[in-house]
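ok new one. same drill as before - structure tokens go in, u give me an amino acid for every spot. 414 of them this time. try not to just spam alanines like last time pls lmao
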């Protein structure tokens, strides 16, 4: 790569911490936890690859704030009673070569698979609409005000535990259709109380979480928020809403907004929309980031569709502080080192072209997760995996993990 590229310049965040370069491993749920939903050997092996990948920052796959509300099987959860030892080791591995370690924290709300027998709660009792695949998901229950305060406390406790475990910061997941997005979107938030209606009300839970985390964690603890640039569904959360939310976050000392988009229903994070918006073929959300950058002082990061150094560099040149890569780093964990040797080296992002878009989206995720599992087993990754075979293997792995997790929940229930 051009050794003088801006990609390799350090960046100091508002909290005073410096990231050594601009390339960030974005969150990818691995579904590879050890028994008890804590990180174990498979995750340690996987993260060692990224620790040696010359990245500025490593963000974990989403860690659940409530063990009874998991996005999927084999997920990681952290609450105030969890043994911190495995998390301390996890953070140490990520930081072992100079990258910053960030824990992404999340609550799935209604976006939980029925087979998990998890708690499915949402601002309103609106189920997921994925056509014939909708039946895979649980019917959510409308949250009471007490539920909402409880969730806020959970986010706070998990952030504090991440700090205690040695993470440099957290990222609050408010994108991709999970609980905080469900509050933000008028399609899923039909409440008439102070948590619904105007964008100010819909953003209240996110704002409360951010301000409380800022109040209890150290001043140099990094606080990031992952936000949709829109949910790309008709009458959904719009880009104007995003700008308003960012405007509200501005006074709270947020270090980075990561801009993404979409949900399970409209997987814009894989480059697909449901409202006819056309996204760029690489760096899907850069155009949104450019507009947002002119309206806010919060440093921005954008993730989605980036696999080439030239594009990553463009993201920074056009106003983002950081650039996020997910899928390409699952296939080539040392992609940044490859760019250093050969600037034109292109990473790879699996792209399934099946006609059933929902199934194709699941297959895309399966192809990536298969590479994460291979790295966790210290195997080489596959650059061009078969979507069908990956889906089959992923389904078998998820079944095994579901059985394990459901079994462990049921043995604990009175
Ligand atoms: C297997 C897989 C798991 C993911 N899990 C998460 C997650 O836990 N949290 C999150 O914010 N995004 C998650 N994402 C989305 C990525 O962070 C990213 O936004 C998206 O894949 C687009 O970036 P890419 O084109 O570089 O993959 C996941 C993506 C994949 C492929």
């Amino acid at each position: 790569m051009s050794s003088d590229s801006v990609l390799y310049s350090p960046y100091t965040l508002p909290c005073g911490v410096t990231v050594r370069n601009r390339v960030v491993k974005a969150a990818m749920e691995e579904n590879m936890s050890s028994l008890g939903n804590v990180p174990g050997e498979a995750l340690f092996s996987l993260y060692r690859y990224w620790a040696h990948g010359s990245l500025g920052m490593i963000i974990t796959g989403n860690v659940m704030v409530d063990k009874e509300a998991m996005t999927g099987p084999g997920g990681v959860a952290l609450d105030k009673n969890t043994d911190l030892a495995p998390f301390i080791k996890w953070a140490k591995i990520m930081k072992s070569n100079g990258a910053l370690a960030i824990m992404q924290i999340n609550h799935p709300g209604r976006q939980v698979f029925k087979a998990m027998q998890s708690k499915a709660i949402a601002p309103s009792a609106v189920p997921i609409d994925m056509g014939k695949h909708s039946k895979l998901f649980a019917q959510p229950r409308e949250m009471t005000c007490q539920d909402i305060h409880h969730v806020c406390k959970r986010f706070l406790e998990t952030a504090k535990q991440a700090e205690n475990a040695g993470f440099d910061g957290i990222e609050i997941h408010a994108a991709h259709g999970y609980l905080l997005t469900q509050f933000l979107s008028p399609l899923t938030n039909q409440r008439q109380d102070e948590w619904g209606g105007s964008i100010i009300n819909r953003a209240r839970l996110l704002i409360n979480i951010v301000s409380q985390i800022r109040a209890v964690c150290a001043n140099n603890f990094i606080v990031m928020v992952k936000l949709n640039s829109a949910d790309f569904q008709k009458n959904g959360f719009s880009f104007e809403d995003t700008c308003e939310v960012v405007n509200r976050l501005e006074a709270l000392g947020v270090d980075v907004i990561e801009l993404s988009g979409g949900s399970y229903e409209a997987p814009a994070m894989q480059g697909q929309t449901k409202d006819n918006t056309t996204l760029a073929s690489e760096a899907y959300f850069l155009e949104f980031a450019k507009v947002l950058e002119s309206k806010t002082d919060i440093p921005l990061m954008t993730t989605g569709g980036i696999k080439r150094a030239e594009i990553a560099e463009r993201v920074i040149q056009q106003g983002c502080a950081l650039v996020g890569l997910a899928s390409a780093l699952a296939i080539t964990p040392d992609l940044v080192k490859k760019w250093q040797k050969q600037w034109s080296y292109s990473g790879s992002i699996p792209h399934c072209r099946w006609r059933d878009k929902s199934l194709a989206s699941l297959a895309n995720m399966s192809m990536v997760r298969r590479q994460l599992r291979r790295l966790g087993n210290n195997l080489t990754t596959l650059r061009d995996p078969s979507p069908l075979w990956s889906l089959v293997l992923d389904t078998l792995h998820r079944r095994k993990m579901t059985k394990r997790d459901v079994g462990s929940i049921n043995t604990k229930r009175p």
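The CA atoms of residues 117 and 410 lie 10 Å apart. and btw Residues 26-29, 61-62, 104, 173, 175-176, 226, 260, 269, 303-306, 325-328, 349, 365, 368-369 surround flavin mononucleotide (CB under 6 Å).
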